[in-house]
Amino acid sequence: MKFVADGMLGKLTRWLRMLGSDVKYFNNLDDEQLIDVASREQRTLLTRDLHLYQRAIMRGVDVFLIKGEAEAEKLSELARKYNIRLEINVDESRCPKCNMSIKPISKEEIIDKIPESTSRFYEEFWICLGCGKIYWQGSHWKKINKTLQQARQIMESPAKEFTAQSS
What is the pTM of this model? Predict the structure, then answer.
């Protein structure tokens, strides 16, 4: 999937990139510029801004209005709509920071660029082909998997009905 995300969706952008989606993120473009990027590059515009959503629809741009609050809710919404698999496959993942592809790299090639403790505990590493950032499945991996598990559970549950309560 190819997306463009507005400035309110920085965290979601990183998640989608890890899941393998090509996501351009801008926190410095106005609404018209975001709509232009989405239109020109045939990307789906992701936003939480109702006004931007409506403007994009009027311009014929594919747009999705994110309603969830927590990252797991946002991810489940997108997974439902765009059939995104809520599991990280590092062979498909993109750099959360810059959106470029990542590739496996041997520990020996990056030993001088990682903390000593990391080199003692981890064997598998990946490097971004764009910015050079190095990744490994460190202690944060449990939190990542927990969020993805929550997103899968939300997605599998019946759709929530929002009703107004009268007093």
Answer: 0.90
Reference 155, options 99, 102, 78; nearest CA is 78
Q: Which CATH entry fits the domain spanning 1-158: 1.10.10, 3.40.1350, 3.30.70, 3.40.50?
A: 3.40.50
CA distances from 120 to 76, 86, 123, 128, 162 (A): 36, 30, 8, 22, 50
Task: Report in angstroms the alpha-carbon separations of 45 from 13, 16, 76, 87, 108.
Answer: 12, 13, 17, 22, 41
Strands 2-5 and 22-25: parallel
Instruction: Report pLDDT digits (tens) over 68-78.
Output: 999 999 999 99
Q: How many degrees, rounded to 5, is the angle at CA 44 between CA 39 and CA 22?
A: 110
Specify whether the CB–CB gap between 130 and 142 falls below 8 A. Answer: no
